[in-house]
Specification:
The complex is a heterodimer of chains A (about 220) and B (about 425).
Chain A lengths: L1 E8 L8 H12 L6 E7 L3 E6 L2 H7 L9 E7 L14 E3 L3 E9 L2 H10 L9 H14 L4 H11 L2 E8 L3 E6 L8 E4 L3 E5 L15 E3 L7 E4 L2
Antiparallel strand pairs in A: 1-4, 1-10, 2-3, 2-4, 5-6, 6-7, 7-8, 8-12, 9-10, 9-11
Chain B lengths: L2 H10 L4 E4 L11 E3 L20 E3 L8 E3 L3 E3 L9 H14 L2 E3 L7 H6 L2 E6 L8 H6 L2 E5 L11 E2 L6 H6 L8 E2 L10 H14 L6 E6 L3 H10 L4 E5 L5 E5 H6 L4 H11 L7 E5 L5 H9 L4 E4 L1 H7 L40 H4 L4 H25 L13 E3 L2 H7 L13
Parallel strand pairs in B: 5-15, 6-7, 7-8, 8-11, 11-12, 12-14, 14-15
Antiparallel strand pairs in B: 1-13, 2-16, 3-4, 9-10
The chains are: A alpha+beta (about 220), B alpha/beta (about 425).
Bound molecules: flavin mononucleotide and iron/sulfur cluster.
Chain lengths: ~220, ~425
């Protein structure tokens, strides 16, 4: 079990408050993953990861002071791999592509071997890193983010809700059965997703937001203009 | 060797011959078990959630690759070793469930071509019955370098089974024992094999895939060489693989177990991702299929199990006179394929005995069996969280014995230990 949450801020006036928003959101998914947490901030491309309770970590990092366009965060309850900062999401690969994952893959060992054979290098033995590397590899082969995510859905077995950000885009996708929770909220000022609604309820303007559950294997993609 | 075995040789002045596969105890897929899903992995729902079984073989070079609905094929068994009825029944069953059958030593019969939608045509050292017309009528070609029951040995068909039709197809006199070549005159190493493969491709207009079948001995090197020589598919037959007839000493004392062969073969093909691997020898259950796929096979082949599904060794038959006893064999323990006196009409060329097998009813049983194997395979794959049986991987398995752990290179159950690592 893990918590994921991410936001893309479209309203320039809100961007100085990115840190505040993501800190509040992170606090609401902390129970889903009390072992460790990680976050990536755009456009700064700043990665923060640590072992411990997410709320404590956010205070240590002075997360609320940060401004920016996008943030993607993860709180982790470890399944197979060790509890270390290296195993924390987001996995940041390629051209500052970051990925957070709730769930677990069922055939990642084979895909890891296939990617390794193509010269792809890994930092951890985490199954989610395989998904991030797969996307980066496909994009290096010329696929766009949406196509790469579709190929991921074809190739990977297991249960997953994934949130992905690049400096210009934010995407969400769920597996074909859509077992892992996910909720999206959109307003003209921002678009955000989280494992649970409570993490979106803290956002300004949520009362009038369009709130919906992502459909299985549908790729949701928002680009920054 | 038992005293009886010594007495048998003392009586005969030669080696015993029989059908079937190795009967002594060797490590098998039974020595492995699956780590199915729980909290760290999630299973797929058995009856609702899709688990793909489609298998494509030979897409590397062939214009028309072999597309199978299930990852289980029927191995090459000759018309000669088997009756025409048995061949027809296997063809019908395979077509019904969407898989392939394979000819065998002695060539292709029209009934077999008609009944089997996807037919693999063997090219063997003996060259009996091999001709360009049948070659072009095939959906794939399988060059046989060897068989798991007798790697390094040639084919064998006892005189009792060389009836008029079999003898004519092989251009041999009727009723004499046939001992065929163990080496094809056109090739010895991979260099000549490469030329042979190209010749077969040209003869078939690069339309159909070329398989290379080897008996499992020096698997890593042999599989690599087959891939280098240009095979689209490598078939590896382990030491427990069945045969229609061969020397007992071959069956029991040559080759390596299928369990050990799969992993070596998969390693050898790591650099050839487009070359597919078929594994055979002792495959009996869906668990065997799933384990072979997890260790790296793309499909499996079955011989003896398909014959048993057809009625081999079945005790329910009551044919009155000339049943097992009269033919000098025992139901449940029969390996008399070589004698031609098959009580159930499968491994015979006697028209009277062959008439005991109804191809339509036989086909139904084999089709049922193939369906059951497929269900068992998908059941295990789903329980491991896979939406495709080909997504099974070695990490889904652990071993129950140290030997199996070492051969399959998976950890001993309850440990992280892989012997030799
Ligand atoms: C009756 C019989 C006849 C066979 N004839 C041939 C043959 O002509 N050519 C060949 O390559 N293998 C032949 N085989 C071996 C099978 O193709 C296959 O490798 C073997 O049966 C697989 O092992 P299994 O029987 O345990 O499934 C024969 C096997 C049997 C049982
Ligand atoms: S019953 Fe027939 S096919 Fe089966 S082992 Fe005996 S002779 Fe061979």
């Amino acid at each position: 079990m893990c918590g994921i949450t991410a936001i893309q801020v479209r309203d320039a006036a809100l961007r100085p408050k990115l840190g505040e928003l993501i800190t509040a959101m992170l606090g609401q998914v902390a129970d889903r993953g009390p072992d460790s947490a990680g976050i990536m901030i755009y456009p700064e491309k700043r990665v923060l990861k640590g072992v411990g309770h997410p709320t404590t970590l956010a205070t240590e990092w002075r997360l609320h002071e940060i401004s920016g366009t996008q943030a993607i965060a993860h709180t982790r309850m470890a399944t197979e791999s060790a509890i270390t900062a290296a195993h924390c999401h987001p996995f940041v690969v390629g051209d500052a592509l970051s990925l957070v994952h709730n769930g677990s893959f069922a055939n990642h060992h084979t895909i890891r071997r296939e990617l390794t054979a193509q010269g792809v290098e890994f930092d951890s033995d985490n199954d989610s890193e395989v998904a991030a590397r797969f996307l980066a590899y496909r994009m290096a082969q010329g696929d766009d983010l949406e196509k790469a995510i579709r190929l991921l859905c074809e190739r990977f077995d297991g249960f997953y809700t994934l949130a992905i950000q690049t400096p210009q885009a934010f995407a969400v996708v769920r597996d074909i059965i859509a077992c892992k929770p996910a909720i999206i909220a959109e307003t003209p000022g921002w678009v955000a997703m989280a494992s649970e609604y409570r993490a979106l309820a803290v956002l300004p303007g949520i009362e009038s937001a369009r709130v919906y559950e992502p459909e299985p294997e549908e790729v949701y993609l928002w680009t920054l203009t | 060797m038992s005293y009886d075995d010594i007495r048998e040789r003392a009586r005969l002045g030669r080696y015993p011959i029989r059908g079937g596969g190795a009967r002594r105890k060797i490590p098998t897929f039974d020595d492995l078990t699956f780590l199915t899903a729980s909290a760290s992995r999630y299973p797929l729902e058995g009856y609702r959630e899709h688990c793909a079984t489609r298998t494509v073989l030979g897409a590397k070079n062939a214009r028309d690759p072999v597309v199978l609905e299930i990852p289980i094929t029927i191995a090459g068994m000759s018309f000669g070793a088997l009756s025409a009825q048995a061949k027809e029944a296997l063809g019908r069953a395979a077509s019904e469930v969407g898989t392939s059958t394979t000819t065998g030593d002695g060539g292709m019969t029209p009934e077999e071509r008609m009944s089997s939608k996807t037919l693999v045509y063997q090219c063997l050292p003996s060259r009996y019955g091999f001709n360009p017309d049948d070659l072009r009528a095939a959906d794939a070609i399988e060059i046989v370098l060897g068989q798991g029951a007798k790697p390094g040995g040639g084919g064998m068909l006892m005189g009792q089974k060389l009836g008029p039709r079999v003898a004519a197809m092989r251009t041999l006199p009727e009723g004499i024992d046939q001992r065929s070549a163990c080496r094809h005159p056109d090739w010895t190493g991979p260099d000549d094999l490469l030329i042979k493969i190209e010749e077969l491709r040209e003869a078939t207009g690069w339309r159909v895939p070329v398989f290379v079948k080897i008996g499992a001995t020096r698997v890593y090197h042999d599989v690599r060489l087959a891939a280098v020589a240009g095979a689209d598919v490598v078939v590896v037959d382990g030491m427990q693989g069945g045969t229609g007839a061969t020397q007992d000493v071959f069956i029991e004392h040559t080759g390596i177990p299928t369990l050990a062969a799969v992993r070596q073969a998969a390693d050898a093909l790591a650099d050839f991702p487009e070359v597919k691997l078929i594994v055979s020898g002792g495959i009996r259950s869906g668990a065997d299929v799933a384990k072979a796929l997890a260790l790296g096979a793309d499909a499996v082949s079955i011989g003896v199990a398909a014959l048993v599904a057809l009625g081999c060794n079945d005790t329910v038959h009551d044919f009155g006179p000339a049943s097992y006893d009269d033919l000098g064999t025992t139901p449940g323990d029969c390996t008399a394929c070589h004698t031609g006196g098959c009580p159930v009409g499968i491994a015979t060329q006697s028209p009277g005995l062959a008439a005991r097998l109804d191809p339509v009813r036989g086909a139904q049983r084999v089709a049922n069996y193939l369906r059951a194997l497929t269900m068992e395979t998908t059941m295990l794959a789903r329980a491991c969280g896979k939406a495709d049986v080909h997504h099974l991987e070695p990490e889904d398995l652990v071993a129950l014995t140290v030997e199996a752990a070492a051969m399959a290179r998976v950890p001993l159950a309850g440990t992280e230990w892989i012997p030799g690592r």
